[in-house]
Amino acid sequence: MAEPLNIALAGLGTVGAGVIRLVEANAELIARRAGRPIRIAAVSARDRTKTRGVDISGYAWVDDMVILGEREDVDVVVELVGGSDGPALALARTTFEAGKSLVTANKAMIAHHGLELATAAEAAGVALKFEAAVAGGIPVIKGLSEGAAANAIERVYGILNGTCNYILSTMEDTGRDFDDVLADAQRLGYAEADPTFDIEGIDAAHKLSILAAIAFGSRLRFDAVDTMGISRLKAADIEQARALGYVIRLIGMAEVDRTQGGDRLFQRVRPHLVPLDHPLAHVDGATNAVVAEGNFMGRLLFQGAGAGDGPTASAVVADLIDIARGEKGATFSMPAAELEMMEPAPTGHRLGRSYVRFTVPDRPGVLADITAAMRDANVSIESLIQKGDPDQDGEVILAMVTHEGPESAVSQALRILEGSESLTAQPLVMQILGD
Amino acid sequence: MAEPLNIALAGLGTVGAGVIRLVEANAELIARRAGRPIRIAAVSARDRTKTRGVDISGYAWVDDMVILGEREDVDVVVELVGGSDGPALALARTTFEAGKSLVTANKAMIAHHGLELATAAEAAGVALKFEAAVAGGIPVIKGLSEGAAANAIERVYGILNGTCNYILSTMEDTGRDFDDVLADAQRLGYAEADPTFDIEGIDAAHKLSILAAIAFGSRLRFDAVDTMGISRLKAADIEQARALGYVIRLIGMAEVDRTQGGDRLFQRVRPHLVPLDHPLAHVDGATNAVVAEGNFMGRLLFQGAGAGDGPTASAVVADLIDIARGEKGATFSMPAAELEMMEPAPTGHRLGRSYVRFTVPDRPGVLADITAAMRDANVSIESLIQKGDPDQDGEVILAMVTHEGPESAVSQALRILEGSESLTAQPLVMQILGD
User: Fold this and answer.
1) Which residue of B has its CA nearest to A317?
2) Which of B145, B301, B325 lies at the smallest CB-CB distance from A303?
């Protein structure tokens, strides 16, 4: 048996503990598959004494995680600290300076600093791998950057945040409202105490920007992801969508737009109406799923556990096995210097069908105002449902679905209605996922 | 830019032509991703003059494909001839003898000779890769052998034959009978003139045996796949299944059975009843899907185009890009010498629910005979549907679903009924896919 691959773990939260459990439980199998054992040489975390459910007494403890990569007995640093900057970023930089490889689950750091870090890793001739950063246990980074490598990818989209998907499918199953289900999710550990990154779509946007860079060979543009979360959704939206034959899912979607001159990058995270016959409509609970469309392979779907210590550890150790096998991979499926700078695509000309939810006073004339605005903006209405009874504030929900048309027309109609007394709250627009 | 990876193509059918089209269409992208161009150096096929829809005049023609690997200007031979033995096998052997890598889409050859060929490739220090052999454009070989490499895989199963899935979902949509739909599928090119390999489950068994070897680190045991195809299915089965809340799919399934002492290999290809809330129930047409369950990652699903020139070419070229990147991979996720010899698992003790279709004469007493046999064999009946009217032969279809119990009990009941005048044809048994 060859020399072991020596790793150092920075961060011993649930994922870090999961990696220790996995490396110990599957040690023999990993050695057979990797051709050499994976050995934990050192660990580091903020608090040495915290109870973690794993015994770390057999591993060297290092107080200052930033210098883990400088240890002679370490080949690869596994960064599970989190956060786009701070200790995680410092650790990544010192690791490459020390000529060691880095495996990370840190989507925020890759989304913000991926190009810099890939460049540093390449200059040092080492690996930067982050399978665990996107869609947990699903090998979608590998699937895109290697499995689909022969294809020009035309579109990549999917369900990238398990917390949102859990909340949406629970709202669907129970008819309960967002705040109520979120509170439950927090109690059950499916949502964090501060859920902003998840429910506002930021976590999904981090992941989408990483997938887009790999799929299109473009530089990371997290700053250019058009992002909206699920916090404004009501039980009534779910109900109306269901009545129309849809479920609501938070979809991250990226495309290269070639219609406006040059290659422009379209990236959007938003709740969408998903038709019941679409595979993503059946992705429930904390599951993640990613669809990639290539010019030769057609449509490919990856689905699995998007979070949790076991699945995330599985992805981290898959990266380590690649490195143990001597297969470093190209960080974003090609050298960093090859990645193209793409400007964000405008969105107004995009064709599609939209769902618009209006909150209106319960009085005559409202419908006439809204339909007049639609007519004036050239929006063609496919269906319109007014929910039966007004709520305690005398408000009624009006759910509208448009025929296919440019997104800018819907925006124009809403501008016409701005300030109108026929609306008691800002309308909510969602796209309907096409084929 | 580094030196090109020079390839030779053996076999210029639809997939071979697809590979040429892909390598030409995506040449620039492939070079960026692989770090070097992929260049077609030579081609060979049975008939030089056949029209193929691609121009091969720019590539060296070789009459004797078996010596392609011996050419100095060839780094990798791509075998797209097909057949478990014959020229394909001869070509594979001479290629490794010449110290060159082989990429193949040939599931039959790998299922029958995979261990010999992997051993030869390892001895020569070259790659043997066959992503295109299983599930067409879906990178499931890579997904299992690399993406899921950190896991003990407990079970792998899926829809592995697009022809059968097309026939079954068309029977479902149209209510037509098997022979009728098969004839149509042949006219449309979804089934071959001799459809035996597809409809009798042999093609799926080839693929399953390859997946099992990778998932479990076991030697290939195609000979031990318990195989039954779909040719005995009737429209009535589809209809009864639907009434009970199921669709019928040809499922290949493999597990390691540890209940009988030692690790034993369970491999089965059979039509199954799939509950409508299972992701595989929504896999329609010629689509393939594979589920793998690992001890850390949980359940992972890969879905996509299982056949066709584009998707298959995508998988072939993904293998070539891996080789161009210097990443040969371990043929079955570990060196051939590490693969364990596993004996086939017995099946009688397996617990599950079964569907049994009886064809019976339309007279009193039949039901009493059948239910008595079930009672005597300790089979507990969950439901029993007798289809309304007898057909032109005076026969009636009786569809039964059992409660969970050992498969041997159902076999025992059918043995009791053997030769009984209450049956006018051999009963058909299908398993119900569990969670």
Assistant:
1) B150
2) B301
> Can you list the residues of chain A whose pLDDT is less than 50?
none
Q: Write down the pTM of the prediction.
A: 0.96
* B54 in contact with chain A, both atoms CB, cutoff 8 A: no
Query: Any idea which architecture A140-306+337-344 has in CATH?
Result: 2-Layer Sandwich (3.30)
Domain ranges of chain A: 5-133, 140-306+337-344, 351-432
The dihedrals phi and psi of A256, each to the nearest 5 degrees, come to -95, 125
Amino acid, res. A293? E
Domain B5-133: give its CATH code: 3.40.50.720
Q: Which amino acid is at A232?
A: R
Q: Is the confidence metric ipTM above 0.85 for this complex?
A: yes
**Hey, what CATH class is B140-305 in?**
alpha beta
User: Looking at A249-253, A418-422, B122-126, B138-142, which range is the least confident one?
Assistant: A418-422
In angstroms, the CA B231 to CA B164 distance is 9
Q: Which CATH superfamily is domain B351-432 in?
A: ACT domain (3.30.70.260)
| Cβ-Cβ contacts under 8 Å, B333 against chain A | 33
* Residues of chain B neighbouring A335 (CB-CB closer than 8 A): 35
More confidently predicted of B226 and B389 = B226
Q: What is the DSSP string of B321-382?
A: HHHHTT----TTSS-GGGPBP-EEPP-TT-EE-EEEEEEEESSTTHHHHHHHHHHHTTPPEE
Q: Which residue has the tokens 């992701």?
A: B279
- Active site annotation includes A207: yes
> Which of B296, B299, B302, B338 is most worth mutating to test chain A (most A CB atoms within 10 A of its CB)?
B296
Q: In this structure, what token pair is assigned to residue B109?
A: 């050859």
* Beta-carbon contacts below 8 Å between A and B: 205
